[in-house]
Amino acid sequence: MKGGIAHRAALASVAALVASLFAPHVAHAATTPATTSNTATASASPHDATWTQPPVDMRAVTGAFKRSTSSSPSSTRTFEGTSAPNPCYYSIWSDPANDAPELDAVSYGALYDCPSGTWTFPVTTRDNWASSELDFGGVVFDTDNNPNDGNGGFDYVLVGIYDQGTLQAALIRTPDTNQNDWFVVSSAGITRSGSNQISFSIPNTSLGSPANLRWAGTLKGLSEQGEDDFPDSTAQGQPVHFEDGYTGSGCTVGVDASLTSQSYTVVDDPQAAAVALQAAGQPSVTATGTHPGVVHFSGDPARAGAILAGAGIPATVSADLSRRFQATTDDPDLGQQWSLNAVKAQQAWDVTTGSPAVVVADLDSGADGTHPDLAGKLVAGEDFTVNPAVPLSP
Fold first, then answer.
1. Domain termination site, one of 215, 244, 273
2. Contact by Cβ (8 Å): 137, 198
3. Is 9 helix (H, G, I), strand (E, B) or coil?
4. What is the pLDDT of residue 96?
5. pLDDT tens, 62-80?
């Protein structure tokens, strides 16, 4: 929602630090804490010159953060996976459409990759856009669960911008409300897998290796007066997401992606999901249907779930299992199925559970030979009716 003050103020303020980090005339010594003699300043690029940097209203920011007591717990996530293998943790949320005129987020997420210990925060927007349309975007973090320290409770800001023809990102430490004390910790990852998607990434160690964290994000277009916050700000303040359970014994390297286990997922756009899986090297990907549809694939199912989450596609991956009939079904309602008892099905199962050599006769008024269950399986029938127009076997 536009108009949020908590993380937009922080992101806009530190964007200048990111620009200076990547400017040709500024040494990378700017990654050390700023002092009176080496305070990082903004580069004089045309992009920076067009910014109208909002003031940092720290009373409002702090108040908003303190009021955000309803951090989103894991029970309210629309999608979550916290079991090994890679990644051990990922979750996806939806964001209301049409609440920003330019860069309007419709889904976003948090992924933690176990082997590398890296966070990735993907955002999918309603419309396609060129990288040059990005003013700033990123994520603010509270890593110590203390709303009374840092910049209004936020200890770090991961911010990305488009400057000098490229996307650039950095992690900024905000130990207090004095912007002269803010400094660049390290450069950060910023990538785009599609024309309506952007991702920000940073190692958990760069955040001080917290076992849990709070976070919120923002995306702003260059020509927009405000931005799209996620989660949306409310009258009570700026909500944040709370993440935990992503470290420890449950975080282990997964199985080899070359395994031939079969899985599937039902998604709104199966073609887009298939493209994302194929681009990431997931084997044996096929898609059927349109909206919604099914995507089948082999390999590591958790890796596939992470790929889809990174592409902003909510999905629940299930094993594609084959089952053979047993002599007696384990259906708890078997006793209520009078038709099976009437034809002595259970006694027949003791003899055979089916054979393609057996021909079953059915006395009916017709058959649809194009039905998937019957196509190619019918033998020549006999017409005993007085109306030959009734469809029989093909």
1. 244
2. yes
3. helix
4. 76
5. 333 333 333 433 333 333 3
For the chain, how many structural domains are there in total? 3
Specify the CATH number for the domain of residue 288: 3.30.70
- Residue 242 pairs in a beta bridge with 214
Indicate the residue among 211, 244, 277 that finishes a domain: 244
Query: What is the rounded CA–CA span in Å between residue 31 and residue 183?
Result: 7
Q: What is the average pLDDT across 109-135?
A: 87
Measured CA distances, 373 to 277, 318, 370, 378 (Å): 31, 24, 8, 10
Residue 348 has pLDDT above 60, yes or no: yes
Measured CA to CA, the distance from residue 28 to residue 26 in angstroms comes to: 7
Same-domain status, 228 and 124: yes
* pLDDT, mean of residues 74-92: 44
Q: Which domain holds residue 371?
A: 357-394
Same domain for 75 and 174, yes or no, is yes
Please give the Cα distance from 267 to 261 (Å, whole number): 20
> Which neighbouring-strand residues pair with 295?
265, 287
Mean pLDDT of 80-104: 64
